Amino acid sequence: MTLSPTQKKNVRSAITDFCVRAEANRLRWMYVEQRPFWGYGQPPEAPHIADCSAYVSLVFNWAMHRTGIYLPDPLGEHYSGIGNTDTEYNFLKSHPAPPGKYLVGDMAIFGTAWHTIHTAICQKAGGDNAVFSSNGHGSTIFNRDAPEPVTLAAAKAAQPLVGVFRNPALL
């Protein structure tokens, strides 16, 4: 299903909304690597226990329910709560975002193609100045284990970037 420009705009607006609200409520978020993770359908102000890959899945699930538009789980696990950065990379690797033209909803994956370590989701479009949001310390660039914004340039300076990828629904 191809989304219209208006549908994509609405999805991206819901993604930004979730990220900004989660960051404003970072003290309600705890970083834990557990599977399955939970929290689907919970607002970003609610207490959450999640890692970085759970965060991107929660963001897309929120946007899907806020807009009524089906969005594939970026972890490739149908919102089951069991995916991680490896399943995310396997699901998204054939959908790279155009270099330097990152849009809200694009996902940066860090580490190596054979060992991913961290992910973050774009909440403000741009090039290396694009702002990404993530929950936690799969990375050394976040100084707290809670949702926090960071530019892609800062993230790339601190850890190897596998790539930035786009959810197939937003192509």
Q: Any idea what the CATH superfamily is called?
A: endopeptidase domain like (from Nostoc punctiforme)
User: How would you write the strand order of the largest sheet?
Assistant: 6-5-4-3-7
% residues in beta strands = 15-25%
Given as residue ranges, the uncertain stretches (5+ residues, pLDDT < 50) are none
Q: Could you name the CATH class?
A: Alpha Beta
Largest sheet: 5 strands, antiparallel
Task: Please state the second-level CATH architecture.
Answer: Alpha-Beta Complex
Number of helices: 4
Structure notes:
There is one protein chain. The chain is of the alpha+beta class and 171 residues long. The chain has a single domain (5-170), classed as Alpha-Beta Complex (endopeptidase fold (from Nostoc punctiforme)). The chain has helices spanning 5-24, 52-67, 85-92, 152-158; strands at residues 29-31, 48-50, 107-112, 115-124, 131-135, 147-151, 161-165. The strands form two sheets. A five-stranded antiparallel sheet has the order 6-5-4-3-7. A two-stranded parallel ribbon has the order 1-2. α1 (5-24) packs across α2. The longest helix has 20 residues, at 5-24. The model has no long low-confidence stretch (mean pLDDT 93).
Summarize the structure.
By secondary structure, the protein is an alpha+beta fold.
Search tags:
171 residues, alpha+beta, endopeptidase fold (from Nostoc punctiforme), five-stranded antiparallel β-sheet, 4 helices, 30% helix, 22% strand
List the helices and strands and how they pair.
Elements (H helix, E strand, L loop, with lengths): L4 H20 L4 E3 L16 E3 L1 H16 L17 H8 L14 E6 L2 E10 L6 E5 L11 E5 H7 L2 E5 L6
Helix pairs in contact: 1-2
